[in-house]
Design a protein that fits this description.
Dna Ligase, domain 1, about 30% helix
Length: about 500
Amino acid sequence: MRLAAVDARAQALGLGPGMALADARARCPGLATLPHDPDADRGELDRLVAGMACLTPMAAADPPDGIVLDITGCAHLLGGERELAGRAAELAGYTVRHALADNAAAARALARYGTRRGQGGEDVHALPVAALELPGPALVALRCAGLYRIGDLARRPMAGLAARFGEAAVAGLRRLLGETAAPIAPHAAPVPIRAEARFAEPIARTDDVLDVIEDLLVRLERDMAARRIGGRRFVATLCRSDGARRRLAVETGQPVRDPATVMRLMRERIETLADPLDPGFGFDAIVLAVPRAEPLGTRQIELDRAEASGDSVAALIDRLGVRLGAEHVLRMAPRDRHLPEKAQALVPAATQDRGFSPPFAFRGGAGGGAARPARCPDDGPHPNPSPEAEDLSASCFDLAPVPRPLYLLDPPQPVMVVAGVPDGPPQRFRWRGKLHEVRLAEGPERIAAEWWRARGGHLPGGAGPTRDYYRIEDGAGRRYWMFRSGLFEERPNPRWYLHGLFP
């Protein structure tokens, strides 16, 4: 694995992008790293580009980590070019390098390869030939010919350069010198999904209001179908003739654009209003907007569509969310944790599953059924496993599913255990005052503490020592999931706990 990006402190220690992670840790043992997520980087870059709209309408992304702003006709509105550049750097919120030039290619090259870091006055002729961003062999050929700076190339005939180093070198040089255009593709703000209806005479009946909202939904359905998207949040704004406004908002667990589905939720919303829908002297305009939308493609409709696709469950979740509040309709979701009591959490049922797959060490939970803890506190975010780790788990550790109990005790309950040998399985145990003789025992399955979460030598969230889990069956055929907390080299007297019950 290699470093994709480093901060200023890491650069001061001699680290840089492309360096092997092992070499970086050898230089800096306390190096803090996170998995590289190119999709998240692209999303953050798009967010930054959209935020530059307050400076200029001509803002474009320059992947993987750059933004190009065309400030023609905008600088004087914000106090000049220097002031605008400073505001852009402040808006970005990151450590940035910026440059000003007469064309986009020159500004990009100065920002990436210049040495004055936005102080201005630097000439593109002083830039290294690497600013042309040519393939490696072409750059080596330029340096072997004694051409190290852009100025060295600019003083030579273009025809000779093209014959010796290729047309790409000449094209890049012309762009830097401003002899050919270097157009950008500015970010286009998404067109809002919105429809409105205005009336010559105000309307006051609730049925009339619902009819208008339904007509607006039909119009928006065509718009969303053309974009292949569906709405997750619909907001109807009712404008009274006296200037007051009333908003009705509904959310769905899945993207939808069917007017009938949204209308059912709108009617539920109106029925559950704490105060009635007061029209006053009537509503003279109604605006329907979809502030949140997601991709929604076409799908094959089957005869048992409602049962096969789970639409009935999604509709039930949406209706309960409207009546009770989305925060009160919950479901269990897996989390990237090794400890069984923290491997799932309650989340709003309307949120979509992002396709998380538990680590291979706990993958057996899917085969044995999802556990049901009474509570699952969150200890904070944790990066998803890297693709390399996923490939490793799929290829080298293709383990059979490990049975998991359907019911977890949270917190685990202490039990008194008698074992034949100190580190062996229990032979009998006492739980809730009753003695159980062990007939069968299988294990151990070792689950270590989450050492990567340690902060200053302390493991947050009560992770505790290493656990050895056993599947136990007593003389009456009842099955238990027990673990010994701590190894004998970790603590002198490890304790036993009952953590789950098998059906």
